[in-house]
Amino acid sequence: MWKYFQMLLLLMVLLAHCHHAMGDGIWDYAVTAKTKIIFYDEHWREVTSSAHQFDYLSAIAFDETEEIVYFADRLHNNGSIFSLKLPRGGSTDDTHIIETIVHRTQNETISSIAYDPLDRNVYWVDQRSKKIYIASIGRKETESPKVFMDFAKEETLPDGIGIDFCRRKLYWTNSNFTNATIERIDLSGHNRKVIVSTDLYLPHGIVVDQLSDRIYWVVDQQGAHFTVESANLDGTDRRIVVKGINSTPFNLAVTKDLIYWTDQRHNAVFTHTKVASEKKNQTEEGAKEATNPHIIFKLQEKPSGIIGRSRYMTTLKQDDHCSGVVNKIKRRLLDSNIVSSINNNPSNMTLLHRDYCLNDGEYIAQSGICICKVGYVGARCETNECHNYCMHGTCTMSSTGQQKCSCQHGFYGKRCQSSKCSGYCLNEGECKIDNNGDPMCECADNFSGQRCDQNSTEICSLFCRILKYDSDTYVPFGCHDICEELASANEETARLYAIPTYKHLEVCKDQVTWTNTIIIALVAGVVSCLCLVLLIVHGVRRFYKPARPRIKKTFVVRRQPAASSDTPLTNRPIATEQCEITIENCCNMNYCDTPCFDPKMVQQTLSRDNNAKEDKKILIHNMEDDLY
Ligand SMILES: *[C@@H]1O[C@H](CO)[C@@H](O)[C@H](O)[C@H]1NC(C)=O
Ligand SMILES: *[C@@H]1O[C@H](CO)[C@@H](O)[C@H](O)[C@H]1NC(C)=O
Ligand SMILES: *[C@@H]1O[C@H](CO)[C@@H](O)[C@H](O)[C@H]1NC(C)=O
Ligand SMILES: *[C@@H]1O[C@H](CO)[C@@H](O)[C@H](O)[C@H]1NC(C)=O
Ligand SMILES: *[C@@H]1O[C@H](CO)[C@@H](O)[C@H](O)[C@H]1NC(C)=O
Ligand SMILES: *[C@@H]1O[C@H](CO)[C@@H](O)[C@H](O)[C@H]1NC(C)=O
Ligand SMILES: *[C@@H]1O[C@H](CO)[C@@H](O)[C@H](O)[C@H]1NC(C)=O
Ligand SMILES: *[C@@H]1O[C@H](CO)[C@@H](O)[C@H](O)[C@H]1NC(C)=O
């Protein structure tokens, strides 16, 4: 009947996505008050509470894989340890299923519970009998719990226990204040070892943080003092995370970044970062915030146990020490999936189940939970942890589910929430981010300096004063206007300040050099342009009008006609009597081949005068007349 009801609900959820608010059973923290267990979401808003005729609740433990809470009641008549299963999947029915795990046999005083998800065992400390007990969840009803550790013959008073289910070890605090210790033993019952034995007064709760591979514990120190401490799993590198006054811490829970503890003096839950404040440099950003543990909220009743969801099935999947155990747990859960689907045989339901978990989350039918992929949280893995995580940057997810931001230029901080510009430029200077990502200021009038922290009026007035007595003093250029203003304000200031005289000179000199350079450049430019133009014109001309071939023609003329019978034209002249005429640039070879002159005219001129130069001139002249 319940299964069908659940199926109906699943359908409702799938059809109506708006169903979100309270009551979908997703909680991240739980605290036991005296008569009830209160569940909170990630922002410590109360989600639900369970108050089922409880008398005096103390310790609490949580099985994340099956969504079962184990808790102890010191006074309940029917039993001492109970299990509680909350309804899931958006159920409107708030039936809390409570079962008795351990029946009451005597007046136990249970101070602490731990759960081993691999073997499904519950461990608890009974302070009255000074024993640590173990009981299997799947055991038969008649089977009574076994004694795991017996301190009856020792001076040990066991108080808190914590389990390292990955490395299979159990840790406990011994709160006998005369000789308090922190010890551990293998879950197989061997290798008991004292790992911390100094400076402990009344140590109470202890937890193993599988993410950082450290143990954390709380100590009620002498007087009103208290500490929250941490150490490596073997007790080395012990650090005090918080040291304070006026608090009586009882138990604690550790998440990715924070520690939470229940305080029985104020009936409150406190928180602090996991990082030790003593290690932090006081000048560092955020140091102040980290050194002060603060109350998250107060309760009506005395709180004792506290648990936080660690999502180890997701975050420890790739952890060196945990992956083996996590995989074994997962196999067990998936096997139970097959069993439950065979039992019920609704193929449509498994289909729905597959769709129930978003973003590749794996559905565990037995407990009705999703095991999400790294980076997703929520009952249905619907929330991307990176979404909106980095304010000014991009978010990436580590294999252990830690968000990491790479910030944009000019931003810093864990979530890139801080701008390098904020508060950087003083006196209304305008801030910009340069290419190296460093802030840079553009100062308002009358201010200067890297952060506009210098009052220019103040600084310049010093220069203007010195100038009054030493006119050669160098004055920064920006001060000229200010000096002028100061000196001309009134008579009194005129006596004190001087105006730098070389102000205009300096400006002129600058201008002259500037002009000269320009002129030189211009002239050079114009000249080279002209040369270029000439070259081009010449080239073009050469291209279109190739030079005329130079043609030479040589005429040999006899100086004096021989007295003999031979004619002057056919007669070979004697070397001493001949004369040569060379005619260049004759346009037409054919024309030149023929005599370019009238022989009669030659005769005429030759007979007239014997001047050779004159002859040549006339010849050329005549030839040109013929040509053109
Ligand atoms: C305790 O046990 C008795 C008898 O077994 C039962 O009637 C009663 O309801 C139980 N009380 C609680 C609080 O479970
Ligand atoms: C438990 O303690 C109460 C009073 O403290 C006593 O009345 C009762 O008999 C005790 N029960 C057992 C089983 O010892
Ligand atoms: C605590 O230790 C002292 C001696 O160191 C011993 O006398 C006392 O009995 C112890 N107390 C318990 C509760 O074991
Ligand atoms: C304290 O305990 C340690 C180890 O458990 C033991 O060696 C030492 O003698 C004890 N001291 C006292 C004063 O009981
Ligand atoms: C803290 O930081 C300042 C400057 O950043 C440095 O001078 C100082 O030594 C640091 N102190 C410690 C304890 O690291
Ligand atoms: C599964 O759903 C289909 C239609 O969606 C239906 O025809 C079929 O009978 C269902 N099977 C079971 C086993 O409910
Ligand atoms: C700068 O200072 C001068 C006098 O020192 C003043 O007259 C002027 O108003 C100031 N300018 C601004 C923007 O404050
Ligand atoms: C800058 O200095 C001058 C002279 O000391 C002073 O009159 C003026 O108020 C100062 N300006 C600011 C913004 O502090």
TrEMBL record:
One of its GO terms (molecular function) is Wnt-protein binding. It is a single-pass type I membrane protein. Pfam families: Ldl_recept_b. The keyword Repeat applies. Disulfide bonds join 407-416, 421-431, 443-452. One of its GO terms (biological process) is oogenesis. Residues 1-23 form the signal peptide. Residues 382-417, 418-453 form the EGF-like domain. The chain crosses the membrane at residues 518-540. SMART domains: EGF, LY. Keywords: Cell membrane, Differentiation, Disulfide bond, EGF-like domain, Glycoprotein, Membrane, Oogenesis, Repeat, Signal, Spermatogenesis, Transmembrane, Transmembrane helix. It comes from the Eukaryota. LDL-receptor class B repeats lie at residues 168-212, 213-258. It is found in: Cell membrane. One of its GO terms (cellular component) is plasma membrane. Belongs to the cueball family. This is Protein cueball. It comes from Stomoxys calcitrans. The gene is 106089415.
